[in-house]
Queue: 2 jobs
Job 1
Amino acid sequence: GAVVSQHPSWVICKSGTSVKIECRSLDFQATTMFWYRQFPKQSLMLMATSNEGSKATYEQGVEKDKFLINHASLTLSTLTVTSAHPEDSSFYICSARGAGQGWSGEQYFGPGTRLTVT
Amino acid sequence: KNEVEQSPQNLTAQEGEFITINCSYSVGISALHWLQQHPGGGIVSLFMLSSGKKKHGRLIATINIQEKHSSLHITASHPRDSAVYICAVTTGNQFYFGTGTSLTVIP
């Protein structure tokens, strides 16, 4: 099946710094990528949807200036958490959907990135 | 009220048992997904279905569109099946996730 990777798998940063998380589709072209966050013992929460070459669409309540998403190519999307604070500590997961797939299309999930802000 | 409800929330089974996890939803959907999240956090998409039944190995997923209900069955359960199973639905422009069912299979 299709493979999606994330880097880094975990990161610890100091409060006030910025952290970039990469999401790559390794063997297919992902026209759409999704970013989720997950707090302990809670389900996934969709943060934003990004389409290659266009601005991301953010879910209600997600600060677009704090969570910068760039989908610059068909195989790479990045999420940058700017001026991170301890409350941003969470598990961030991306998923990718191939070209020609509608909203019912198969999504392939990355392994996730655990962010801890101290 | 959650658009997607799963039951049970937690489930412990003996190795070899037949397991059923249920998912009910309240919105019109274009597809339903069953996801498996391992203890380390990684997520695997198990099934995507919009009607009927799908089978992959020991896993079977069914959906009843009229009743807005889906079930995930695991036959001959094994300790490596221990994970959180998440039901998710898409409506065409929105995703809704269940809170997950935590499964522990004891040897």
Job 2
Amino acid sequence: GPKVLQIPSHQIIDMGQMVTLNCDPVSNHLYFYWYKQILGQQMEFLVNFYNGKVMEKSKLFKDQFSVERPDGSYFTLKIQPTALEDSAVYFCASSLLGSYEQYFGPGTRLTVL
Amino acid sequence: GDSVTQTEGPVTLSEGTSLTVNCSYETKQYPTLFWYVQYPGEGPQLLFKVPKANEKGSNRGFEATYNKEATSFHLQKASVQESDSAVYYCALVPHTGNYKYVFGAGTRLKVIA
């Protein structure tokens, strides 16, 4: 079936540094999402994105977070600066416009030291 | 706000026995309900969805009925296999057009031969 790819699979950085998580969504999908899952906890919605704009974001989507998809390339989540509490697995998802069915990537495990 | 509560895991079953994972939800909007399954090292993948109350969804022997009166969407399978070992997530998305998923905490299922 359709695949969402995420790069890298693991990222270790020092607190205060910037990190960019990359997502290659399903090719004809137009709606994109990021979720955060802290180890042992549930997956929580961060943000969704359509037509170049953030449509909805949660309280977890701090001011240090930003998303973009320049020119149809990767859909990215940037965190600048990072904090210890940002350590988690971040899942990207995409969907067709008008569909509630999301396709998830395998996740990027981010460790902030 | 919207929420989903499901059976706390881990759940350990012997192959061939029946499974029930309870899921209850709260939302003021009319939602579509989902069950997702997540295998180790992968992102969640859709098991099935049910957009309308009083309808049943099913896939791979799993089924759940959208019970609007009881606000429940319990997952059942008559006879589990070792390959069903995974984490199962109940989720909802309200029909508000903002595509904001709410996930339950997940239920880890381990099936032993």
